[in-house]
Specification:
Strand order of the largest sheet: 1-2-3-5-4-6-7-8-9
CATH class of one domain: Alpha Beta
Helix content: 25-40%
Strand content: 5-15%
Distance between the termini: 41 Å
Shape: globular
CATH superfamily of one domain: Alpha/Beta hydrolase fold, catalytic domain
CATH architecture of one domain: 3-Layer(aba) Sandwich
Number of strands: 9
Number of helices: 18
């Protein structure tokens, strides 16, 4: 770690994140997270104002901006690395703003570590990013072609056409930023987004939240932001005119004003009590409440900052491409002065139901069985004798209640259908499986269920082989049997599982040696057509 006048740049131990800190040491901490393919420099133009009130910590995703290439395969894993980074700095409570996957990390922290967050801003983010197939397809393209296709298409995804035409230097900065990202870490982040889905959990987010989105964002647009606001109690919504996905870059003044307003007015001073399973524990096992940070308020004005772009070289870590000096570019045309936005306020809670919820009626008791007349005790049976059946009781005389039935133990082998359907959709893709299941009529539905339950739920779910190996075995078996339609589907599955086109070709060559050249030749033609289609860069 080394101190700089304009900030501190970290060295990065394993299982933590590369970070930079700006702002007064005694100020409340505000963490800001990047979008996929970007670096902490995407927040350069927010830092001068934010760092006047907060101690701002920016971080890079693994393999981005010169950070160590240690892939993280889930949003929760990225959140764990961020928490480990903050723990190492002694930071317990903080505000958080994140863009796109950075927003997903913030939402995950709000669900798993609510006592750590004082306030939350989700910028260009979503509870569910597109479809799993879209992000796994990105992984296929990068694994085959490298980062260049993603780099060339980034400006179209990130900026409006007018801004891209007016700011060619910033567009080139964006392209180079993506091009220098580690491919394996980018693919892992795509897998993390493919698996991310918190739509059912939004109601559990209790942190004061702002959903901020560019009006022209085509990646995670206003519709996704409204879904967040509808699901998170009390969340506010801000739509920024003239901005696409990277709103902090395209409309920096508007985004800065919205963030300052949100974190100045919606900072939760007292953390809610942490849930029992998530309580912080000392090495001895005793529970310890987190130390609260002070609420943001007036702080001493730090000495004037040096121009934050370009930053000083970050010492032992590789120097990421700095954000171009905004003074070098003309005002961005009609988008230079964004339309003033209304302050994001809390959404009114839904009205209480006008009628009380009905209670379940208690079950109607069974009529009691009739017993022998009172005062006529039965004689005990002699040892070794067999008890005679009890005669029916006379009308009007209640019988003894029967002994309660013993509870049935849960089955040690639960039905694997749901597990099988999930694995089948993960391997073959959600849309193809859903279409095939929908086509199964009364005649084929039973077979479809059989295959899902046994092939996918009991074989593909086994731990003995990893997903890549099973994909290779499936290709060899389908090629040897001449099942070319299924071979095409499993070629796509193999690409999504991480096999490269060269590895698929090797599988089919080996199959030809042992199962016959004609079968392998037909398989090569089918697999080749699928590979060309799947690995072609898409806009």
């Amino acid at each position: 770690m080394r101190d700089e006048r304009v900030g501190q740049v970290s060295e990065t131990p394993k299982n933590t994140l590369q970070y930079r800190v700006d702002g007064p040491e005694d100020a409340p901490v505000l963490v800001v997270g990047p979008s996929l393919g970007t670096t902490w420099h995407m927040w350069d133009r927010q830092i001068p104002e934010l760092a006047g009130t907060w101690r701002v910590l920016r971080f890079d995703l693994p393999g981005h901006g010169g950070a160590p290439a240690q892939p993280a395969h889930s949003v929760a894993e990225l959140g764990d690395r961020l928490i480990a980074t903050l723990d190492g700095l002694g930071i317990q409570r903080f505000g958080y703003a994140g863009c796109s996957i950075g927003g997903a990390i913030g939402a995950d922290l709000a669900l798993r570590h609510p006592h750590r967050l004082a306030s939350l801003a989700l910028v260009a983010s979503s509870a569910r990013f597109g479809t799993a197939d879209e992000y796994r397809q990105r992984g296929v393209v990068v694994r085959t072609n490298g980062m260049d296709p993603m780099a060339r298409s980034a400006p179209e995804r990130w900026f409006t056409a007018a801004y891209a035409a007016a700011q060619p230097a910033i567009v080139e900065w964006a392209v180079q930023m993506v091009r220098t990202t580690d491919p394996a870490c980018y693919i892992a982040a795509c897998e993390a987004l493919a698996a991310f889905d918190i739509r059912a959990d939004l109601g559990r987010i209790a942190v004061p939240t702002l959903a901020l989105v560019g009006a022209e964002d085509r990646v995670t647009g206003p519709g996704e932001a409204r879904t967040l606001v509808a699901g998170i109690p009390g969340a506010g919504l801000a739509v920024v005119p003239g901005a696409s996905h990277l709103a902090p870059v395209e409309q920096p003044a508007a985004v800065t004003d919205l963030l300052v307003h949100h974190f100045s007015t919606a900072w939760q001073e007292t953390p809610p009590p942490p849930p029992a399973p998530s309580a912080t524990t000392t090495p001895s096992g005793s529970s310890e409440p987190p130390a609260p940070f002070p609420a943001p308020g007036p702080v001493a004005t730090p000495a004037p900052f040096a121009n934050p772009s370009p930053f000083p070289a970050p010492g032992p870590v590789a120097t990421p491409t700095p954000f171009p000096n905004p003074a070098a570019f003309p005002a961005p045309g009609p988008f230079g002065t964004p339309t003033p936005l209304a302050s994001p306020g809390p959404i009114a809670p839904p009205p209480a139901p006008t009628e009380p919820l009905g209670l379940l009626a208690p079950p109607t008791p069974e009529p009691p069985a009739e017993s022998a007349a009172p005062g006529e005790p039965s004689e005990p049976a002699e040892p070794g004798s067999r008890a005679e059946p009890t005669a029916p009781a006379e009308p009007g005389n209640p019988a003894e209640p029967p002994a309660p039935a013993e509870p049935t133990a849960p089955s040690p082998h639960p039905d694997p259908y749901e597990l099988g359907l999930r694995i089948r959709r993960d391997v073959l893709g959600g849309a193809p499986v859903d279409a095939e299941t929908a086509r199964a009529d009364a005649f084929g539905a039973g077979f479809d269920e059989l295959a899902t339950r046994h092939a996918w739920g009991q074989v593909w779910s086994r731990d003995g082989l990893d997903r890549r190996t099973r994909a290779a075995v499936a290709l060899a078996a389908l090629a040897s049997g001449g099942h070319l339609d299924d071979l095409a589907a499993h070629t796509r599955a193999a690409l999504r599982a991480g096999l490269t086109p060269a590895e698929i070709e090797e599988v089919l060559i080996q199959t030809g040696v042992y199962c016959g050249l004609p079968a392998a030749s037909a398989a090569v033609r089918v697999a080749g057509a699928v590979i060309r289609e799947e690995t072609a860069p898409r806009g």
